[in-house]
Amino acid sequence: NGIITIRRQEGSEIRPSRYTIFNSAGIRLLEGNTNAGDIISLDISAYPTGVYFIMLHDALGNQVLKYSLIR
What we know:
mainly beta; four-stranded antiparallel β-sheet; two-stranded antiparallel sheet; 6 strands
């Protein structure tokens, strides 16, 4: 459906961070900031079917997640 939901792991909290979303060609599509909490929701429903990479940047470093958008 194009909504990416990132939930915290048990015993941890999602820290305020920046995010960047790239397509499989490495083109930056979206970027923004998140708030601290348990859940982050990002909407890529306007983009075509494909593989996307979400990079989360915070004080402890970077984390990259892979997401496949299938319609």
